[in-house]
Every structure is written in C-alpha cells, then in structure tokens.
Amino acid sequence: xxxxxxxxxxxxxxxxxxxxxxxxxxxxxxxxxxxxxxxxxxxxxxxxxxxxxxxxxxxxxxxxxxxxxxxxxxxxxxxxxxxxxxxxxxxxxxxxxxxxxxxxxxxxxxxxxxxxxxxxxxxxxxxxxxxxxxxxxxxxxxxxxxxxxxxxxxxxxxxxxxxxxxxxxxxxxxxxxxxxxxxxxxxxxxxxxxxxxxxxxxxxxxxxxxxxxxxxxxxxxxxxxxxxxxxxxxxxxxxxxxxxxxxxxxxxxxxxxxxxxxxxxxxxxxxxxxxxxxxxxxxxxxxxxxxxxxxxxxxxxxxxxxxxxxxxxxxxxxxxxxxxxxxxxxxxxxxxxxxxxxxxxxxxxxxxxxxxxxxxxxxxxxxxxxxxxxxxxxxx
Length: 380
Ligand code: MG
Hints:
Elements: E1 4-7, H1 12-24, E2 28-33, H2 38-46, E3 51-54, H3 59-69, E4 73-75, H4 77-84, E5 90-93, H5 100-109, E6 113-116, H6 119-123, H7 126-136, E7 139-142, H8 145-154, E8 162-169, H9 179-182, H10 187-190, H11 200-208, H12 210-223, E9 230-234, E10 240-246, E11 251-255, H13 261-269, H14 300-310, H15 314-330, H16 338-349, H17 358-379
Parallel strand pairs: 1-2, 1-5, 2-3, 3-4, 5-6, 6-7, 8-9
Antiparallel strand pairs: 8-10, 10-11
Bound molecules: magnesium ion (MG).
Residues 144-146, 215 line the site of magnesium ion.
C-alpha cells in the first residue's frame, strides 16, 4: 500500500483520514498541521514512524516539538511542500485556507496522488493546480462528498458523453426563507447546519450557498466541464451526493449516509474499493426530495457562477472577499445579507488578471482582502 501524507492532520478531514488509513492498513508517512498543538503532539506520539511537520509554530511550540520528537519533526511551510512531494505518496490535503495551495501544487508536480479537501486550491488557484497536474502527471482525486460522487459516477464513462453535472446542496439552515427574513438571522442561527458538522467559515458558507458556488468552480476545474453544464439542486437529506446526466438521458447518482470517511476512503483506494465503516444502507427509510435553489434570496450562488465564468483572478477574489465578509458577520460587524454585498463590491473593485503562478493567487488574495475590508466600512 502506498504511504499516506496527511496535511491538516488535526482537522476533521485529517483525523478521519488517519482513522481510515489505520483501518485499511495504509502506512502514514507524514502528518502535518499549522500549529504545534497538544493534538498534533498526541497524533505524532501515536504514529511513531511518521515524519511530523509544523508549518507555522510559535517559538515555544518549536522548542517543545524539537525536544520531544527530535529529527522526526520539521518546521515551516516549505517543509509542508516537501512532505507533499515525497515520492509515491498519496497526499491528503485537509489544510484549511490558502496555505493549502502550494502543498497541492507540490504534490501534483511530484507526480503524486492528491486527495484534495482544501477548497482554496481549486477555487482560488484552479488554473495553477490544473497546470501542475499536467506538468507532473499526478492524480487529482476529490475528497469533498459532492465531487467524490461526480468522480464515482464518471468511473468507466466517456467524459464526452456527459450532458451535465448536478451538485446537490443541503440548502443550509435557511432553506425556504425569503431575502427579507434572511436580513434578520443571527450568527447562532447560521451556525446550526442541518447535516454536516464543520468549521464556522464553511458552515456560514453553506448557509449563504457560497460553499456550493465554490463547489461549482471546483467541479469546473476537476472535470473540465463548462459552467453552463453544471447545475445545483437543493436536496435536504444529503443522501444523494451528486448526479451526472449523460447524453442518452441516463442519470447516475452516488448515494450514502453523509459520512466523510467514505469519500476519504475512495480517494485512498481508487480505483478499487475496500470494505468501509458503514452498515448496509436502508433505502426504504430514505425520503429523497429535490428543489431548485432560491437564487434571489441566496445571491452568493450566482456571484460564484459569474466569478467562475470570468476565470483568472476572479474566483480568488471571490474566495478571499468571502472570508473577510464571513469573519465580519461572525464578529457581529455586518448582517447576514451584507455578506454577498461585500463580496460583490470586492469583485468590482479588484482589477481582473490572468493567474499563472501561486504568487499571482497570493496577490489577488491580498488585493481582495483589502477591497473587502474597505467594503465593510461602506456597508455598516
Ligand atoms: Mg461539499
């Protein structure tokens, strides 16, 4: 079995990856996290054969980890990229934020399999990541439940026969509410997600449908499909993870309990399947419904389509501006309905450019943060 490198090891994806690897017998070659936390130290102690990388340690953390783990531990973001480039590895990138992009590029340039859970890699850096994939000849296997579903539906199929792809969305906590009702929602309301337990930013992004907009952009890059052929439907039960419709009118869907260990496992064992952690699924207990998204109440969805169609720096600006706007909402500085307003102002304010390198992405990200921060002042 190929060695697994787990980036973002202390996060939700990282921990579940370590569970899956242990159950299936994959050797863990390296674990990495941003900070030298007690959680990372415990994981390092539990994986005595794994290299340990702390990407952004404090002075204290550096001392403690060096004293406890000696030569096994390395520090700094460049060592994160080195771990991702380890020969023959399956690199699970569960890093949260823009710090995940250079590691994705390093993994693909080294010809490795990248099991991708870091959103920013494809949302902000899509052209950079797809170029690295072509240069290095690696494999890009999505871990997100929707994209894993699409990849599974496409297995054995001719891409030219795809008519459209349909991403399912849980709809978040505010499905069915009008734009006027949304203006009144609180941070606590927005953090109550119906099916998935996730970090605060992605939970708010699910409530605004911005997360689904990001997933549309990711699908475009992962599967080389035009935006006109990617649709979104609201599916409250999160059992159908996504759907591919083919030219002959056949639809294939991938279904299952919402449990991230399943797509993580598929990314490790692809193209094979191994026994998983879930009991047999009871189809007779599943009541599956589908509805169109309300594009007026949730304007982030169409902001995402528009930024995706523009390409270049626009999706990077969308992502960074959204991060600023979501943080401002969480801090109580703006209302829920101001999130798309701030993002749209930043998209208008930042000059469009093509993206070729990680540095181009970083520059677009920085400009977008400044523009969004400026827009915050205007909206409150
Ligand atoms: Mg998803």
